[in-house]
């Protein structure tokens, strides 16, 4: 009855034989079977309960805070949950989170696609394998180390680039720079780009590997150059994979905490310039404000965390949907 | 036709091509020129001259190639140079990250550093160590693994061996969703449940609860993949001999895939070892040795790095780098060992 429900892409035939399954469904007769089924089904249910609990408790505490909020939670520029009356809003945080993530995506996606192509189509095989392996390992470097490196090494190195941007593009306002340390949203975006590079690269690489050899050879046979092969067969095939990889990276950039908290010098206002220190992100704000927060302050932080949770859920859900759709059609392709 | 006619004067069917060393020559030239320009203009940032050189390289190879080889070849060359530039752009900072950590980290990293706590050491003075942080990390990660490994592996077994229908689909979906939960949100959840509602104080255990939320989905995913690789013939053979299903799973399916499962678990451990945000919210960190994970604040390695960074003095920075080096080394060893096991005990699929 349920053969069609699951795992369309599993290479070996999925699941055990059907008759065995029916017996399990009828209620296994042997006590050992019953206990084992109960344990494993229980774990599955536990995961569901856990997700429900996360949503429920966050909503509950967040609602406690928002009900006392005198300012508009979505548009206020204040963050003063312990004041009388308490006023706090997420406008600045939403702005900072979105802007830094966009910067990270703009930098990381083309470069990751480039590295993925480098590994699969350009590098000598040995070098490609090594690079893939190293990038895999880099995905494991913890964010606190990126933060430490960003704050101590990267920030002083940004001065020259900032000076340039200010000289040549300062008139736009977006790239105006008043001087001062480069602890701004732009630096944060660059650091986030570095942090999400490995994950986007890894997923894109896997997708590019799966491009049917025939497609590429057909293009080559028509006299295409290497770039034309990539444009005509590799990129169209890999497009949805790259999109979902980018969404996974975006999900990570949105929720990144420590690296942002260590690099950014936060403030509660929105400035037109990306280069001047200031701004904040959801996760960074939680980490920096947590220490001095009272219960009310913690509830307000939970409310902002709730918003972050919803945003990442949407982004990740979209990524999963794209991956799932792709699986179906690449299955038909194989 | 002899070969001689082909090589010196090319046939009219083939356009002119640039020699193989052309790309390298342009690369060397643009590096030199970029460095020269920035030296002349008095730019002092490495980033600047590297960017100038990169632009020169891409533009230069396009221009020459467009002249000699024609438009299509030139576009092909541009793509190639862009890919190389992307590779270098990404590798340089990542190499710098590893290099700086290693170079600055070895300064104070020694036996003393590993076996002493920060107990009576002021932030601004040298000395002290990470013993308390190592202890805390091991306990918190250990507790988190104790919770997540059974739950994760059993959930994966349910999904692969039993799961059909709505419940299994829901579990699959929500495991995917859990994978994307930011670590700070996991911390906030335990904060709201454990601290704000149950009124418990900070402890290592609260931290491990949050860490296991991050670890469970990773374990489920990797175990699931491994179980799917076990050939069905093995299951059928065992069942045909009258072995109960639970014994089949325990004695046939799990031993076949155990290498991959362990690899997945180790990678998951490596991932949560570096988590800071939940520890910051729930374990707080301390300078003293606290071996009891169920009571009072504890330290952990990432937390230690954060606190030392916050302290802001030079000796504190040195300690932060040394702790970062220890943390990276620990995680890399776990990763390499995990990959080693994966290769050594690769599931025997088919023949």
Automatic annotation (TrEMBL), chain A:
GO molecular function: phosphate transmembrane transporter activity
Subcellular location as annotated: Cell membrane
Keywords from the named record: Cell membrane, Membrane, Phosphate transport, Transmembrane, Transmembrane helix, Transport
CDD domains (UniProt xref): TM_PBP2
Membrane topology: Multi-pass membrane protein
Domain spans labelled ABC transmembrane type-1: 94-319
Domain of life: Bacteria
Sequence segments annotated as region (Disordered): 1-27
GO CC terms, sorted: plasma membrane
GO process annotations (BP): phosphate ion transport
InterPro entries in the record: MetI-like, MetI-like_sf, Phosphate_PstC, Phosphate_Transport_Permease
Listed transmembrane segments: 35-60, 88-119, 131-155, 185-204, 300-323
Function comment: Part of the binding-protein-dependent transport system for phosphate; probably responsible for the translocation of the substrate across the membrane.
Stated family: Belongs to the binding-protein-dependent transport system permease family. CysTW subfamily.
Protein name (database record): Phosphate transport system permease protein
Lineage: Bacteria, Bacillati, Actinomycetota, Actinomycetes, Kitasatosporales
TrEMBL record, chain B:
One cellular component term from this protein's GO annotations in UniProt: plasma membrane
Cross-referenced Pfam families: BPD_transp_1
Keyword Ribonucleoprotein: no
Keyword annotations: Cell membrane, Membrane, Phosphate transport, Transmembrane, Transmembrane helix, Transport
Primary location: membrane
ABC transmembrane type-1 domain boundaries: 134-338
PROSITE patterns: ABC_TM1
Gene3D superfamilies associated with the record: MetI-like
Parts of the chain that traverse the membrane: 21-41, 47-66, 78-99, 141-160, 172-197, 203-220, 252-272, 320-338
Compartments (UniProt record): Cell membrane
Domain of life: Bacteria
Protein's job: Part of the binding-protein-dependent transport system for phosphate; probably responsible for the translocation of the substrate across the membrane.
Protein name listed in UniProt: Phosphate transport system permease protein PstA
Source organism per UniProt: Streptomyces toyocaensis
């Amino acid at each position: 009855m349920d053969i069609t429900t699951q795992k369309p892409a599993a290479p070996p035939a999925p699941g055990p034989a059907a008759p065995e399954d029916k017996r399990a469904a009828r209620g296994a007769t042997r006590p050992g079977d019953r206990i084992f089924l109960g344990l494993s089904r229980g774990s599955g249910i536990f995961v569901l309960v856990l997700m429900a609990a996360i949503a429920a408790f966050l909503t509950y505490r967040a609602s406690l805070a928002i009900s006392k909020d005198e300012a508009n939670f979505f548009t206020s520029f204040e963050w003063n949950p312990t004041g009388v009356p308490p006023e706090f809003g997420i406008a600045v945080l939403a702005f900072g989170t979105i802007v830094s993530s966009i910067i990270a995506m703009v930098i990381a996606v083309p470069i990751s696609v480039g590295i993925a192509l480098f590994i699969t189509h350009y590098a000598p095989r040995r070098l490609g394998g090594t690079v893939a392996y190293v990038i895999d390992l880099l995905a494991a470097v913890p964010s606190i180390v990126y933060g430490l490196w960003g704050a101590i090494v990267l920030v002083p190195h940004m001065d020259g680039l900032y000076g340039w941007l200010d000289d040549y593009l300062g008139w736009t306002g977006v790239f105006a720079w008043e001087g001062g340390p480069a602890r701004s949203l732009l630096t944060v975006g660059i650091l986030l780009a570095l942090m999400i590079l490995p994950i986007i690269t890894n997923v894109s690489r896997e997708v590019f590997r799966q491009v049917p050899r025939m497609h590429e050879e057909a293009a080559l046979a028509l006299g295409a150059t290497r770039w034309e092969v990539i444009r005509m067969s590799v990129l169209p095939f890999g497009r949805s994979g790259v999109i979902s990889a980018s969404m996974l990276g975006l999900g990570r950039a949105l929720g990144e905490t420590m690296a942002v908290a260590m690099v950014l010098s936060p403030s509660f206002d929105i400035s037109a310039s990306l280069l001047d220190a200031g701004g904040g992100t959801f996760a960074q704000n939680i980490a920096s404000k947590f220490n001095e927060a009272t219960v009310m302050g913690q509830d307000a932080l939970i409310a902002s965390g709730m918003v972050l949770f919803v945003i990442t859920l949407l982004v990740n859900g979209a990524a999963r949907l794209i991956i799932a759709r792709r699986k179906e059609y690449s299955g038909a392709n194989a | 036709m002899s070969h001689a006619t082909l090589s010196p004067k090319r046939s009219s069917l083939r356009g002119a091509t640039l020699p193989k060393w052309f790309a390298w020559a342009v690369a060397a030239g643009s590096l030199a020129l970029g460095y020269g320009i920035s030296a002349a203009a008095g730019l002092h940032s490495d980033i600047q001259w590297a960017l100038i050189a990169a632009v020169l390289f891409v533009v230069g190879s396009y221009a020459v190639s467009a002249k000699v080889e024609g438009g299509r070849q030139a576009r092909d060359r541009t793509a190639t140079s862009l890919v190389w530039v992307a590779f270098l752009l990404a590798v340089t900072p990542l190499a710098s990250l590893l290099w700086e950590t290693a170079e600055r980290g070895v300064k104070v990293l020694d036996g003393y550093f590993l076996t002493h706590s920060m107990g009576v050491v002021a932030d601004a003075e040298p000395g002290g160590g990470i013993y308390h942080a190592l202890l805390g990390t091991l306990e918190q990660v250990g507790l988190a693994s104790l919770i997540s490994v059974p739950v994760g592996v059993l959930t994966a077994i349910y999904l692969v061996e039993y799961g059909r229908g709505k419940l299994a689909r829901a579990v699959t979906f929500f495991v995917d969703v859990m994978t994307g939960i930011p670590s700070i949100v996991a911390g906030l959840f335990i904060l709201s449940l454990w601290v704000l509602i149950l009124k418990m104080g900070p402890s290592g255990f609260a931290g491990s609860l949050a860490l296991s939320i991050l670890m469970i989905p990773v374990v489920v995913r990797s175990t699931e993949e491994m179980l799917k690789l076990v050939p069905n013939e093995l299951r059928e053979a065992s069942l045909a001999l009258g072995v109960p299903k639970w014994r089949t799973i325990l004695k046939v399916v799990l031993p076949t895939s155990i290498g991959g499962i362990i690899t997945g678990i180790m990678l998951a451990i490596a991932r949560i070892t570096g988590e800071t945000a939940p520890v910051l919210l729930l374990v707080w960190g301390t300078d003293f040795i606290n071996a009891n994970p169920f009571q009072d604040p504890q330290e952990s390695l990432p937390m230690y790095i954060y606190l030392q960074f916050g302290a802001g003095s030079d000796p504190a920075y040195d300690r932060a780098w040394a702790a970062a080096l220890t943390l990276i080394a620990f995680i890399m060893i776990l990763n390499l060992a995990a990959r080693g096991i994966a290769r050594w005990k690769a599931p025997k699929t088919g023949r």
